[in-house]
Sequence to fold (229 residues):
Amino acid sequence: KAGVTQTPRYLIKTRGQQVTLSCSPISGHRSVSWYQQTPGQGLQFLFEYFSETQRNKGNFPGRFSGRQFSNSRSEMNVSTLELGDSALYLCASSLAGGTYTGELFFGEGSRLTVL
Amino acid sequence: DQQVKQNSPSLSVQEGRISILNCDYTNSMFDYFLWYKKYPAEGPTFLISISSIKDKNEDGRFTVFLNKSAKHLSLHIVPSQPGDSAVYFCAASASGGSNYKLTFGKGTLLTVNP
Fold:
């Protein structure tokens, strides 16, 4: 069974630009979550989608947005990029998103560098 | 305000010995705890979890202990192997309401020396 697929794996942008990252969850998984990992900060929750609805959002500015499509694939967008947005962006999928029942399956991440 | 804390950024142990990774939390609403392992250039992978109704969960070489009164959990790896060298993240969640997120610690880099 294919895992969580994230594209692109690496990208370089300049300040002020915008970026869109894509995530294809494991087949059958309807919940997709996004996390940002920066050096020394661990993983910080961005948002979670289930059946095209955002159910929870982390403490990030409005420049960070996301959406989920009917086939459960998800995209996240960051507008007006800042140097501090340089990070590994991780997507995770699960059957229903209820973290108390099980674990998340993570993709390999998209490494964003902002110059 | 960091709700999940891993106070040791790194830990080094000898092959065959026990590795103990620690995690503290502050949010009393957390009732489910997980450990993830992450190798460089890979996404985190689930390792083991524990519900707040238990104080111990074991899976092969990995055991997680939960002390709710101290708001502390630990991951024991026995015996440690060089392949266990990775960053270990502690995570927590609250089942109540519509909370569909994990709160992670900053991670502990474990190095197992041959």
The longest strand of chain A covers residues 42-50. The two ends of chain A are 37 Å apart (CA to CA). Chain A touches chain B through 29 residues (CB under 8 Å).
